[in-house]
């Protein structure tokens, strides 16, 4: 049970709950996690998120609070992690992304990528060294896989790790690495003579440089970086002993993709709620626009796609809890959730009219963020190819 289950201020239910009663499909503990995340998002993120997005500010002071709430690495067991179920984790992702994609991304990078890599593939010493502090939010991790030349073909990475008598020397560059400039440790994936391996690299190691990427029109309240690895020397025990080949990073990516399946529906819900509220209060031709057939049809279609997306996420969560979730099924969820969330956000902007492009409403911020979510952890096209391969048993990646 999360620490965040302690009494919190009451938080209004989403408007869509009047039609779609998700709670009826959830276990009591899952509802507690959901409400804890909703309260955190409402009380700690939403009051400042529009200003933070405008000012490109990431509020690092919230990280220990996320840890205290139990959200960091919450799906992992031991080492200070909450050991929550997959559906509980998904619901937390949904509620955080209903506030802003950047904060769900933080939880994904910290828990589903960096912490999962250590938990799944690390030695006991590595787990004891890093995981308790990361679960508490006292330490931050990043996941350095994507490179400047492209992220869809990690097998072609050019970052190398060369072994010598004193350990390993890592050379290369990574791009779009979330949290790297504030991280304490980086999970760096590199080519070795034995294939792709993962390394735990403390970010204060000589030769490691992380530079935040400026000029972003999306994910402005979060941090993504360029990373340089110039003769970065780490000891032999820095290697993740349980990760050999691309199955290592792919296993972590699938954890993050699962969170996106849920999270994108949170952004969609926020946009749908804004559109419903505006449809009831904005008057044209002497009556609320929500009283017109065209607007009601749009809202109905948006609700149907939102419900379908959440039900798919719930189905995948139940499969994951039974150990039956496949990578192809995760691709179905990631592809559908983000694609439909973007369409819902676009329809919401139409309903809001010109005001929809202002920061008075969250819609354009969500829409901009979702364009990033659509790209990372596998583009639409990558997931289409994953599904095409599953359907035909033919590989069209090359």
What does this structure look like?
- It is an enzyme of class 1 (oxidoreductase).
- This is glutaryl-CoA dehydrogenase (ETF).
- α1 runs parallel beside α4 and α5 runs antiparallel to α7.
- The N terminus is likely disordered.
- The radius of gyration is 21 Å and the shape is globular.
- It folds into 3 domains: 125 residues, Acyl-CoA dehydrogenase/oxidase, N-terminal domain (Butyryl-Coa Dehydrogenase, subunit A, domain 1); 98 residues, Butyryl-CoA Dehydrogenase, subunit A, domain 2; 146 residues, Butyryl-CoA Dehydrogenase, subunit A, domain 3 (Up-down Bundle).
- It has 398 residues and is α+β, with helices and mostly antiparallel strands.
- The N and C termini lie far apart (46 Å).
- A hairpin with a 2-residue loop joins β10 and β11.
- It has 11 helices and 11 strands.
- Strands 4-5-9-8 form a 4-stranded antiparallel sheet, covered by helices on one side. A 3-stranded mixed sheet has the order 3-6-7, with helices on one face.
Itemize the secondary structure elements and their pairings.
Layout: H1 28-45, H2 49-55, H3 63-68, E1 77-78, E2 81-82, H4 86-99, H5 101-121, H6 124-136, E3 141-144, E4 160-164, E5 167-178, E6 185-192, E7 195-202, E8 208-212, E9 224-234, H7 247-281, E10 283-284, E11 287-288, H8 293-321, H9 327-352, H10 363-375, H11 380-392
Parallel strand pairs: 3-6
Antiparallel strand pairs: 1-2, 4-5, 5-9, 6-7, 8-9, 10-11
